[in-house]
Amino acid sequence: MHEDENDQHQRGLRILVVDDNYDAARSMSMLLELEGHRTGTVHNGLEAVREATRVRYDAVLLDLGMPVMDGFQAAAALRQLWPAPALIAHSAWDDAETLRRTADLGFYMHLRKPVCFQVLQAALRELPRLRLSAEDVDAQRVGGLVHTFPNAVPLKSNAGALSSPCPRDRS
Questions:
Q1: How confident is the model at residue 131 (pLDDT cuts 50, 70, 90)?
Q2: Shortest CA distance to 147 belongs to which of 157, 156, 137?
Q3: CA 48 to CA 87: how far, in whole Å?
Q4: Using one digit for the tens of pLDDT, what is the confidence trace for 82-103?
């Protein structure tokens, strides 16, 4: 593993957890913090957009069906940020139309609730290799222009993660 990737893993990611279910959002945040990530927690899409414009997040774990502003609307706004956080849909909705919409909006992954935490961990481990830190983006500025880099893998390549069961402990 590259030294910068080790540093990123040691620091953890900054992840915004967005879910209108307060208990689910707080539980997910606590699990992520136990894994060394720094989290923020909000409960609707509008709060997510406000928070993500205030603090730079590496990833947003985003429920889709929420009041005030749904996850689709929030994703469209979040994609306008530079650098845009990696969007991970975390929803009970996984029908073909929903999957098409999340893919069209540039989500990195679509995880069906309840998600196996190990599947989420695996997705998050890939993010440092796919994304640039704010410092890396600044270092790439040349003459006021920013070179663009792929910051997400196609949602379709991760479709298997939608229903991946947690590995069973065989001990």
A1: low
A2: 137
A3: 12
A4: 989 999 999 999 888 999 999 9
